[in-house]
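Example record used in the benchmark description.
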Amino acid sequence: MVNSPPLSLPELQLLNQELLAALRSGVSLELGLRDSAQHLSGRLSLLAEQLAQHLADGKSLTEALDSLTPKPPGVYRVVVAAGIRGNQLEAVLVRLNEHARVISELKESLRRAAVYPIILGVMAFLLSCFATYFCVPPLRSFLNDMKIEPTLPVRIVYAMHDSLNYWAIGIPLLFGLICIAGAADDWLQSGHTGALGFLRYLPGFRRLMHNAELSRMASLLALQTEYGLPLPESLRRSGDAVNSPQLRAFCFEAADRVERGESFGELLTHSRVVPPFMKWMLSVPSSQRGLAFSTAQAAEVYRERTILQAEWIERMVPVIMTLGFGTLVVGLFCWAVMGSLVTIWNGTLA
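Model output (structure tokens):
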């Protein structure tokens, strides 16, 4: 398992639920995890067994989590350690489970917002290729036989047919290159890329993805500061977890400057990445507990914004795409055909 990929969010959520169930069962964590390993499947079963074995060897839960392969995310491990130090392990596991649920809802909203428009766009593109390939040659042959001069829309569909090999390959290739470039940019700047990170590079999705990343960053920051983790460390852990290069850079820069004694509120004031509402929410608190509360409220606000924007995209973008496709492609072909028929009719009358 040395080269195992990192834990996915669903895997981490399930592992956290098993830890919580073992803690609430009243038996030792070791016995509870060994029982969990029997009904889990795949590498989660191996992880539960591995964790139980580390606990049986005398390691603390923090040390056992650090010894797992693959390790849970750093944020998860440090928050669990903070909960153990404060004798609030059960409350911490509940909060971590809630955080994972919220992030899962955000990702599901983003997937729903993206999938239907992308499917509709692919179908429209394939229909355009089909119509251009099969409908234009009979039209051209008919007009040539009738010795009718092509009108403007007819010349346009002729050009579409003649260049079909280029745009039928070029458009999907361009889309693929945009996605690959976005993933490569994330990888170069952070060493990882989110499964939905390419959406930032699609028209209309940039603000949606930015709000989702703001909610994720604020939620992680609230979770860590709530249990007493220092603000600079919390900022760095939050920066590690987000996929936005701009927010990541802000988190690391803010952590360094807070360690040098600068005010976090003052840093927010001059930031171009953090929106005004979040600046206001995070600048007001004077204590770490107040910062945790305000950050959690900001995370909830941006989560709701993301969900509302995703629902709007899911409902309206397909309608807009359908109308646009009907106007441009179907309208163009109808114009070409009807224009030719009108020309023939006028010629007959003459």
